[in-house]
């Protein structure tokens, strides 16, 4: 909703007003205002629209996810670098259902910009491996599968990785 820099300015103003409230002796107001400023600081690091898009993705609502992502008009200006990575990651998941070339572009851009969680990086590499398999690029798919296997520390993707490795042997 707000630009990333505007969020920090609002948080700074609220903190300044809370210091004024502490000086005036209104301790309760000051504490409340500091807690209010923490919301804007949190939203600087976690964009609210991307959070809502992830909620739609969790419900398997790809159209709803796309609608939320379309509300971000200028991703480079409105998002931090990691948030841009997740913006592209979500677009890659959406396009993996319809347009593999577009999905591959988005996943590669997401990996280049960076993703915070190892699971997300592993999932992006696994999706890229699947796209490479469908395009008959066996060496690239094998390399991406091995990287995804290393990143999957909680063994959440082991079944998918094993299934893709078996499919790779058939190619």
TrEMBL record:
Keywords: Membrane, Transmembrane, Transmembrane helix. It comes from the Bacteria. The keyword Transmembrane helix applies. The chain crosses the membrane at residues 31-55. InterPro entries: TPR-like_helical_dom_sf. This is DUF2892 domain-containing protein.
